[in-house]
Write a structure and sequence with these properties.
Strand content: 15-25%
Number of strands: 12
Helix content: 40-55%
Number of helices: 8
CATH class of the largest domain: Alpha Beta
Mean pLDDT: 88
Largest sheet: 5 strands, parallel
Bound molecules: calcium ion
CATH architecture of the largest domain: 3-Layer(aba) Sandwich
Order of helices and strands: EHEHEHEHEHEEEEHEHHEE
CATH superfamily of the largest domain: Response regulator
Shape: elongated
CATH topology of the largest domain: Rossmann fold
Distance between the termini: 40 Å
């Protein structure tokens, strides 16, 4: 069955070009041109992926992303014309899964779309293999509640951004295993291109500040020299 992609873009020619190229790849495409319509369409369609422009009339893309992220786990790929917004977009505040800076090529867009859809399928397959996934994962005084998507340390709720939570859950599910930055990037972010592995390091640093007694001497997320990271229970 064809996957459904919601395209939110107010620039008519770009919206049309994106829709044309996605339809050529046999995706079902629905287009809207403002933030309110995006919320309505996302709730109605439950799409497999959302392409979301930031600069929109009315409700902007950042606000739309923040709202949708609290309601659904659908991959959201942001389109931005401003490089200075990228840190906010991927820097977890918003919870977007990936971004493209305008102007971008259709080839690049399709590659990112495929990567995000593949990641979403992997997550679904894992859930299918293990129909009764562990809802609670504990590691000493750290507890992760996968159903409620939250974690506590010593009984205190941790203020985790969406990607920090996903990274922590991924670590906990692969306890004791050396995980390369590339593997983490592909599974947690759905990114398979080189040069982005610094993203993992930045998020690990943030996560350590929240879950390590002494972030400078980590005992939970261990750096493996020349390799990646290992989560110790
Ligand atoms: Ca726009």
């Amino acid at each position: 069955m064809a996957e459904t992609i919601l395209v939110v873009e107010d620039e008519p020619s770009l919206q049309e070009t994106i829709a044309y190229n996605l339809e050529k790849q046999n995706y079902n495409v629905e287009t809207v041109a403002d933030g309110r319509a995006a919320l309505e369409a996302a709730r109605r369609l439950d799409p497999d992926l959302i392409l979301l422009d930031i600069m929109l009339p009315g409700l902007d893309g950042l606000e739309v992303c923040r709202i949708l992220r609290s309601e659904m786990t659908t991959p959201i790929l942001m389109l931005t014309a401003r490089a200075d917004e990228i840190d906010r977009v991927v820097g977890l505040e918003i919870g977007a899964d990936d971004y493209l800076t305008k102007p971008f090529s259709m080839r690049e867009l399709l590659a990112r779309v495929k990567a995000q859809l593949r990641r979403a399928r992997l997550l679904r397959d894992e859930a299918a293999v293990d129909p009764d996934p562990q809802e609670m994962l504990t590691s000493g005084d750290l507890t992760i509640n996968a159903t409620r998507r939250e974690a506590t340390l010593n009984g205190e709720l941790l203020a985790l951004k969406p990607k920090e939570y996903e990274l922590l859950l991924f670590f906990a599910q692969h306890r004791g295993r050396m995980l390369s930055r590339e593997f983490i990037l592909e599974r947690v972010w759905g990114w398979d291109y080189v040069g982005a592995s610094r993203t993992v390091d930045v998020h690990v640093r943030w996560l350590r500040q929240k879950i390590e007694p002494d972030p400078g001497q980590p005992t939970r997320i261990i750096t493996v020299r020349g390799g990646g990271y290992r989560f110790e229970g």
